[in-house]
Model the fold of this input.
Amino acid sequence: MTTDSGTPDELLYAPSHEWLRRGDQNPGEATIGITDFAQDQLGDVVYVDLPATGTTVEAGESCGEIESTKTVAELYAPVAGEVVDVNDELSDAPELVNESPYGEGWLIRLRIADDADLANLLDAAGYQAQLAAE
Done:
């Protein structure tokens, strides 16, 4: 289900505009991407620099960059964990971040280090409230 704004209800959101989807087969893993709002603010994405598989990331810390025709933005890890996969498709088609931010434009998959980090994330309604306040 998606809210009227296009924010999927089943995801969790970081205040820095990343989303997190728990793994269906493995709830200890999560897929991470940027929100539709974030990709819209960036403009046309032309390059994505993602961490290597096996890299350990900390919640709230920079773990990559997204370059657009307008700017370069940091990608922040919404939770701590180990990178278990990166979206290699983005090397040849970074525009997927714009075209499908919640689907084919995902960025990395993490093995979550501590489920307690999830408590710091927003649900869809909380994220929409944050956007309304910005």
User: Anything to note?
Assistant: Helices lie at 36-42, 89-92, 96-99, 124-133. The CA atoms of residues 46 and 94 lie 6 Å apart.
